[in-house]
Every structure is written in C-alpha cells, then in structure tokens.
C-alpha cells in the first residue's frame, strides 16, 4: 500500500483562503493597534472573516463553525499564527478554543445554550483555571476543593496560578478536588463559573519576561493569580460529571499543545520570510548578505526545522483524523516546536543584526513571547519523561523502540 501525502483539494483551498485573509487583512491591521482601540480593529476583521465563511474552524457546521477535521484545521492554524490577530479574527484563539471543544463534547444542553453559544458567537471569552503554585506541572497535585452544599451547589476554595486570559474572561473552567478518596485521576471535577464573581478574585496579573505591546493585555489576556474563596457554583454548572475533570483537562491540553505548535510553525515562517527579505536587499563589504554561504547555511537550518515541524503536525492530524492514539507524537511535537520557533526567530534576529535586536521589528517581542512555549501545557522535562518512559516500555514489550520512536508511524 502506498503512503499518500497529498492534501485534499478542498483543504488546500481553505488553506489558501485563510492565508490570503491573514496577509491581506490581519497583518496590515496589526499596525492599526498602535492608534486604535482593539475593538475598532478586531470588529471589522471578524465581520470580514464571517462574511467569507471563516469562523470557528474546528466547530461543527450545525453550531456555526466551519466543520473542519483535524487535518484541515491544522492547515488553517498554521496560517493564522502568522498574525497576532489571525486566531482572534476567526474566533479560534486560545484558551477559548479548547474550552469550546470541551463544552461541546461534554456539556449538557443547558450548558451549551447558556455558556457555549456566546463563546461561539464571539460575544464572550473563557479562561481555564487548573494550574496551582503548589502543584505546578503535576495536575494531580491540585489542592483547590469543591464541597457539595446539599444538592444544589458546590463551594470551592483554593488558589490558581497562571490562569491565562482570566483578566479578560467572562467565564472560567475551574478544576477542583471533589473526592480526595477516589483514585488519583478521578478526584477532580470541572465547573463553569460566571465572571466576575466575588468568590473568584484576581489578585494580580503575573508580570513576565515577554515584551508587551498595545492591547496585549486583552489579546493575550495576561496570566493571573487567583484567590478562590467560598465560591458558590450551581450543580448545573458541573461539566462532564464528578471525577472526570482530570481526563477532560488532559484532552483539552492535548489540543492546546498542538495549536501552540501550529501557531509556532506560522510564526517561524513569518520570521524566516522577514529574514530572507532582509538579506536579499542588505549588502555589506560590497556583497549581498544572501550571497554569503554562512547566511545560506543559517537559512537552510531554519527551512529544515520548519519542514520537520510541518510534517510532525500533518502526521498527528492524520492520526487524529483516523482516531489513532497521538499521545507520544503529541509530546514529541510539543517539545520540538517550542524549540524550533525559538531557534528560527533567534536566527532571524541574528540576520537582521542590530535591527533585529531593536524593537523596530516584531522579532524581539516574539523572541520573549515564545520562550514560554517550553513551559506552557507541560514543561519540556515532563514531556521528555513521558516520551522516555514510552520508549523503555516499547523495548521491554517488543524488543525494539520503533513503535515509540517513529518507526511505526501508522
């Protein structure tokens, strides 16, 4: 049987349509953010996107989305990430997108009508409150509790840390421990919390190393430290049933990791394009930079990294489309893309010289932002630990590591 790498014509057409929208509309609109309110920039973009049928790519058509499968959605996301406004324009920005998928898959009809519908319409935003200082990358170390108050409500108490977009969210998915005596992965549940709420207090947005520009607090939403104190949540807002919070959260994060990787490919591609545009017009000592072998080698390294990154994502999308297990590949790709985008942007800065080090191009800003990719949705070390365990397991069971190291791709 042959291996078919051909992308379906329909998916190619959607990719081209999104690529044109990003380059013709989103990237030019970025300059308007310096002088206009975000709503005045994003509103027209969203109107244009919807008019072209570009809205919520992964959401089924019956819910108002484009109904794309994993492969077509991957192609779209690998275009949207070239602009900070790309995902927002199509209402597929994180962390909202993964939370929409979670409610879509596990929500009751009441929850879909009350909470999902305004998210899909782009009227509201949602954050995901799981991470805690005490637990860090170990989600099973969460200490926030949810205690039943009769049959009508749960009372939540605890703290959350680095809840992305909490400061701009109208609701939150909050994970809390409902049964400390259950098996480790069945102790936690997820609740939909409407915001603002006095029991869910944002103590601060945690300052970090990323260079911020106009409206970044809204576009990216910040990373909030939250105090949860006597937060009353209706039992009707329990998502997916008691004890299912951890598994839902991991599935949600799995998509988030892939989306980060897709956007990283797009951002790296834009950085490489900027670098090539610069070296093909910049001369030193009487010669174009583009004609220097050292420069060509640097560009070759970037192109190679992007090629590998794209193949990883397309292979994972293929497996997801066919209902195959993607956990090992997801972890490998998560680590690879986080390093890849940092390397490509760093190379682009180097090729721009002092201009790249300045803030006259977006490269310096991107450089500080993408450093977070090695930490979010699980740091490098946690994913390497999982990958390594699977490699050892494969050898013990089969006498070879091939199935855990890409030798058994299908």
TrEMBL record:
<dbReference type="GO" id="GO:0005737">
    <property type="term" value="C:cytoplasm"/>
</dbReference>
<keyword id="KW-0274">FAD</keyword>
<dbReference type="InterPro" id="IPR013786">
    <property type="entry name" value="AcylCoA_DH/ox_N"/>
</dbReference>
<keyword id="KW-0285">Flavoprotein</keyword>
<comment type="similarity">
    <text>Belongs to the acyl-CoA dehydrogenase family.</text>
</comment>
<dbReference type="InterPro" id="IPR046373">
    <property type="entry name" value="Acyl-CoA_Oxase/DH_mid-dom_sf"/>
</dbReference>
<keyword id="KW-0560">Oxidoreductase</keyword>
<dbReference type="GO" id="GO:0003995">
    <property type="term" value="F:acyl-CoA dehydrogenase activity"/>
</dbReference>
<dbReference type="GO" id="GO:0033539">
    <property type="term" value="P:fatty acid beta-oxidation using acyl-CoA dehydrogenase"/>
</dbReference>
<dbReference type="Pfam" id="PF02771">
    <property type="entry name" value="Acyl-CoA_dh_N"/>
</dbReference>
<dbReference type="InterPro" id="IPR036250">
    <property type="entry name" value="AcylCo_DH-like_C"/>
</dbReference>
<dbReference type="InterPro" id="IPR009100">
    <property type="entry name" value="AcylCoA_DH/oxidase_NM_dom_sf"/>
</dbReference>
<protein>
    <submittedName>
        <fullName>Acyl-CoA dehydrogenase</fullName>
    </submittedName>
</protein>
<dbReference type="InterPro" id="IPR050741">
    <property type="entry name" value="Acyl-CoA_dehydrogenase"/>
</dbReference>
<dbReference type="Pfam" id="PF02770">
    <property type="entry name" value="Acyl-CoA_dh_M"/>
</dbReference>
<dbReference type="InterPro" id="IPR009075">
    <property type="entry name" value="AcylCo_DH/oxidase_C"/>
</dbReference>
<dbReference type="Pfam" id="PF00441">
    <property type="entry name" value="Acyl-CoA_dh_1"/>
</dbReference>
<feature type="domain" description="Acyl-CoA oxidase/dehydrogenase middle">
    <location>
        <begin position="127"/>
        <end position="213"/>
    </location>
</feature>
<dbReference type="InterPro" id="IPR037069">
    <property type="entry name" value="AcylCoA_DH/ox_N_sf"/>
</dbReference>
<dbReference type="GO" id="GO:0050660">
    <property type="term" value="F:flavin adenine dinucleotide binding"/>
</dbReference>
<feature type="domain" description="Acyl-CoA dehydrogenase/oxidase C-terminal">
    <location>
        <begin position="243"/>
        <end position="391"/>
    </location>
</feature>
<feature type="domain" description="Acyl-CoA dehydrogenase/oxidase N-terminal">
    <location>
        <begin position="9"/>
        <end position="123"/>
    </location>
</feature>
<dbReference type="InterPro" id="IPR006091">
    <property type="entry name" value="Acyl-CoA_Oxase/DH_mid-dom"/>
</dbReference>
